[in-house]
Amino acid sequence: VEKIEEQLASLRIAKRSTLSEKPAYLLDIDVSKPAQSESSRFVAVSCSNKSIRVYNRETLNFLREYSSRPGILNGVRFAHTCDSIVFSACSDGTVKCWDIRLATEKAVQIFRGYPSNVFISFDINCSDLILCAGTEEVEKDTFLVFWDARGITDCAGTPKEPLGVYSESHNDDITTICFHPIKPNLVVSGSTDGLVNVFDINKDNEVDALVSTCNSDSSVSVIGWSGKDYKQVYCTTHDEGFCWWDTAQLDTEEPITLLHVPDVRDVVCAENDSLSYLVGGLYHEKADKLFLIGGTSTGNIHLVGCGTDGLSLVGALCGGHSATVRSFCWDLTDESLLTGGEDAQLLLWKPGAVERSLAKKASLKIASSVQKRVRVHNSSLKSRKK
């Protein structure tokens, strides 16, 4: 574990994307899943200007942009079995899918929800067979909507209708969805109602499918899987809390909660530079170690190690961003880290790298009114209520 911590602490900026003419917050990042014996070729970023931008993975050169105006795009995911297919949920009640090999800016496939649906979260399972999206609460209803995602590019132009929905397990906005990395039938969802629900979608109905319900006691912002065979679930909350559970203990007398920290900012103290928000979690498979990534309003990034005995600061990445970091993506293939922030910059960090570009770090304050789905780091949950 010490070696991994040293490696993370040795991350340096290798590449920096050039600023676009219309700067925007970078809210979510994903890298394409590598084809046989290759590394990832593409990076996709969802932005606060309602677009998805695609970059070359090695050079961070801009390739193309997809927009869904007037709808707002939320989240970005590459397919697992085809590295050129990218998805995003949209506030117009659809999940859209693009093929970045094609010159067209039109979606090659649209997955349509029900009329009242406003999708704010989604994921696709590891076999690319099932797509799931979560809705905002509308008239006390919230839904997890499922589609058959097979034959993505075969029937372009014909919107796909849902396979079905789960509607009983959450009673507020479903803010985050994450399929299991290796078991295509398991999915976990998180909501502003504080609940983190694990489902086995192979079951016939929602009641039987609900494997476990964990309560974070706060509004859930990010969820993920960790541990050997990915039997653990963790979440961060909108008021910077952290919860970590072991689903392997469900059928035992042992407690399921591994760690619950109501406010990580109170626990993790950094010299001269306190942690002010969390961005998400990073499970390092080789080391079997879970880390949290957080930061400061000036753009410094903190790496926090998680143990059942508590949290500890591993190191900080400084000098990259000049404003709040909103998103990151860990790439196991070359142990690199991509980060994006409110300074509109996309950075690639690699162990021991030396930045060759002379581009100066721009201190940007973006003047546009950022769309309301952009997460605001605030200790008060009341400010999130409509």
Task: Explain this structure.
- The protein has a single domain (1-351), classed as YVTN repeat-like/Quinoprotein amine dehydrogenase (Methylamine Dehydrogenase, Chain H, 7 Propeller), CATH 2.130.10.
- The chain has helices spanning 2-9, 206-209, 264-267; strands spanning 11-16, 26-31, 42-47, 51-56, 62-67, 73-78, 85-90, 94-99, 109-112, 119-124, 130-135, 144-148, 164-166, 174-179, 186-191, 195-200, 210-215, 220-226, 232-237, 242-246, 257-261, 277-284, 289-295, 301-307, 310-317, 325-331, 336-341, 346-351.
- By secondary structure, the protein is mainly beta.
- Mean pLDDT is 88; it is low at 358-386.
- The N and C termini lie far apart (43 Å).
- The strands form seven sheets. Strands 1-28-27-26 form a four-stranded antiparallel β-sheet. The protein has a four-stranded antiparallel β-sheet with strand order 2-3-4-5, with no helix packed on it.
Our measurement of the CA-to-CA distance between the termini, rounded to an integer number of angstroms, reads 43 Å
The CATH topology name reads Methylamine Dehydrogenase, Chain H
Mass-distribution shape: globular
- Output the strand order for the largest sheet: 1-28-27-26
**Which segments are poorly predicted (pLDDT under 50) over 5 or more consecutive residues?**
358-386
The radius of gyration over CA amounts to: 20 Å
Percentage of residues assigned to helices:
under 10%
> What's the tally of helices?
3
Would you identify the CATH architecture? 7 Propeller
Q: Structurally, how many domains make up the residues?
A: 1
Q: Classify the secondary structure makeup into a structural class.
A: mainly beta
- CATH top level label: Mainly Beta
- The name of the CATH superfamily reads YVTN repeat-like/Quinoprotein amine dehydrogenase
Mean pLDDT: 88
Strand content: 35-45%
Protein name: WD repeat-containing protein 89
WD repeats: 167-209, 318-350
Keywords: Repeat, WD repeat
InterPro entries: WD40/YVTN_repeat-like_dom_sf (IPR015943), WD40_repeat_dom_sf (IPR036322), WD40_rpt (IPR001680), WDR89 (IPR039328)
